[in-house]
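Model it.
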Amino acid sequence: MTAPVTRLVYAVAAHLHMTAGAVLDQMGAHELMTWGYLFDEHAKAQQQAASAPLELSVEDEINAWR
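Modeled.
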């Protein structure tokens, strides 16, 4: 196994309170890839939120000064 797959197996095992061996025995590649997508999707959403451009509303600024 490659290092990213090993980290994924241990992350899934920790999340499901299983051993890494049990995860490898019970889950197929498709299920592991689905878990990888779910874990990676959360990280990507956090990165996008942090790097999203700041949008200012002229109307909100005008209303704030009233």
